[in-house]
């Protein structure tokens, strides 16, 4: 009996230890959490369709050994005009936890050579007082992954980058990661949050949709089922005075909330507007992010060359006779025109475009053939659109009523 009791107690102890170990198993607390980036000078988030800051926590780990990496979500990329920089990448895990390790994964793209040269990895419980747990100094070459172990309690992760790798073009140095993982044991339930990522309206990025001269503007109407925090073009081409093939193009992108009809919508003030001084192809990037998301609904995006009538006289591409050249902007042509019930273009060919939209929505872009607001949103559109003629009639009626009133008052005075 005593021997049996001993066996039972030992078994119970093993079961309890197994349960505790299972409960204490580390999980990736960064999975699905929002990522914030900032930079002293340059672009902290080159959201060009393939890259976006929130791809760092999407769980799509880059493949290095066998197979191909995910081709749509390669990770995060930033650009700085100088190699010495100051970039921050931060994540709120949503709950305090005992952290065991932080893992930084490189991108299969460039075999991880674009992992930053010099950076620190910091943790904090309050996002104010930080403790460094690791980092790299003058790191060079390929990089598949970097791991920094710890045992401290924290809720916030902060990576501070002070030097870019030797990956550069004529204008910028570039750095990036493929994924960030933070393993630990949470001390409660994480605060839920909405995540956003780039959503292209289709495929394709070929030279094709030209804006130049009198044809210097293009629009796209679309409807979303969820909110979005940014928009842009995956790539574009523009005139370059240094080639030369025209004056440097100045252009802007405007976003309008749909009201009544396209003509009325485009006559109103845009909800977002950005102006750029172009320096040639894809420079600077057409990628914009908002501090607060816009609600789901119908929008019109308009691209416009603002100096379309400027003339540069010279030899086109440095060859031949002198000619008059005007600025141009070429939007990325899609492989095939998308569903006309979902997207309305002012151009003959469809051009690719993306928004940084809310995740977790099965069909993000909605059909909207009646040019009404998103079916998921309550409509505030009046039964009839105000017209100039209606206003004129109303004003005339007011004048008539005032005149009749004056006549009656005058008649009453005469009667006394």
Tell me the domain tally: 2
Please give the CATH architecture of the largest domain.
Answer: Sandwich
- Listing every helix as H and every strand as E from the N terminus to the C terminus, the arrangement reads HEEEEEEEEEEEEEEEEHEEEEEEEEH
Shape: globular
The total strand number stands at: 24
Distance between the termini: 125 Å
Overall structural class, as computed from helix and strand content, comes to: mainly beta
Helix percent band? 10-25%
What is the strand content?
Answer: 35-45%
List the total number of helices. 3
The largest sheet is: 8 strands, antiparallel
- Round the mean pLDDT to the nearest integer and report it: 83
Unreliable stretches (pLDDT < 50, length at least 5) are 4-9, 11-23, 374-398, 406-416
Assign the CATH superfamily of the largest domain. Galactose-binding domain-like
CATH class of the largest domain: Mainly Beta
Structure overview:
- With about 425 residues, the protein is mainly beta.
- The chain has two domains: about 25-195, Jelly Rolls, CATH 2.60.120.260; about 195-360.
- It has helices at about 1-25, 260-265, 390-415, and strands spanning about 25-30, 35-40, 75-80, 85-105, 120-125, 130-135, 145-150, 155-165, 175, 180-185, 195-200, 205-210, 215-225, 230, 235-240, 250-255, 270-275, 285-295, 295-305, 310-315, 320-325, 330-335, 345, 355-360.
- The strands form six sheets. Strands 1, 2, 4, 5, 6, 7, 8 and 10 form an eight-stranded antiparallel sheet that branches. Strands 17-16-19-13-23 form a five-stranded antiparallel sheet. A four-stranded antiparallel sheet has the order 11-24-14-18, with no helix packed on it.
- Mean pLDDT is about 85; it is low at about 5-10, about 10-25, about 375-400 and about 405-415.
């Amino acid at each position: 009996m005593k021997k049996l009791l001993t066996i039972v107690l030992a078994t119970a102890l093993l079961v309890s230890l197994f349960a505790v170990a299972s409960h204490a198993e580390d999980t990736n607390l960064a999975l699905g959490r929002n990522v914030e980036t900032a930079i002293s000078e340059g672009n902290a988030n080159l959201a060009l369709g393939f890259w976006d800051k929130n791809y760092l926590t999407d769980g799509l780990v880059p493949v290095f050994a066998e197979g191909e990496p995910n081709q749509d979500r390669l990770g995060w990329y930033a650009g700085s005009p100088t190699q010495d920089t100051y970039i921050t990448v931060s994540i709120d895990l949503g709950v305090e936890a005992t952290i065991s390790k932080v893992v930084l994964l490189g991108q299969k793209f460039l075999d991880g050579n674009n992992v930053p040269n010099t950076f620190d990895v910091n943790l904090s419980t309050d996002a104010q007082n930080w403790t460094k747990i690791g980092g790299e100094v003058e790191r060079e070459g390929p990089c598949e992954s970097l791991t920094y172990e710890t045992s401290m309690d924290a809720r916030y992760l902060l990576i501070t980058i002070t030097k870019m790798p030797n990956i550069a073009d004529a204008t910028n140095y570039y750095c990036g990661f493929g994924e960030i993982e933070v393993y630990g044991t949470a001390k409660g339930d994480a605060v839920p949050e909405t995540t956003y990522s780039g959503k292209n309206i289709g495929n394709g990025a070929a030279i094709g949709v030209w804006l130049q001269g009198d044809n210097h503007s293009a629009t796209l109407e679309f409807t979303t089922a969820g909110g979005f925090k940014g928009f842009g073009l995956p790539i574009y081409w523009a005139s370059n005075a240094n080639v030369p093939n025209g004056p440097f193009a100045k252009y802007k992108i405007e976003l309008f909330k749909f009201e009544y009809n396209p003509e009325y919508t485009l006559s109103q003030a845009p909800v977002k507007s950005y102006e750029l001084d172009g320096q040639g192809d894809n420079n600077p990037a057409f990628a914009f992010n908002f501090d607060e998301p816009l609600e789901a609904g119908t929008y019109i995006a308009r691209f416009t060359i603002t100096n379309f009538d400027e003339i540069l006289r010279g030899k086109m591409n440095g060859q031949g006779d002198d000619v008059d050249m005007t600025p141009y902007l070429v939007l990325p042509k899609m492989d095939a025109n998308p569903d006309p019930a979902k997207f309305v273009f002012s151009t003959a060919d469809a051009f690719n475009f993306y928004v940084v939209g809310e995740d977790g929505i099965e069909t993000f872009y909605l059909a909207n053939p009646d040019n009404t607001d998103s079916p998921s949103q309550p409509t505030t559109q009046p039964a009839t659109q105000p017209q100039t003629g209606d206003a004129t009639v109303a004003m005339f009626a007011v004048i008539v009523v005032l005149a009749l009133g004056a006549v009656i008052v005058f008649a009453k005075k005469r009667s006394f």
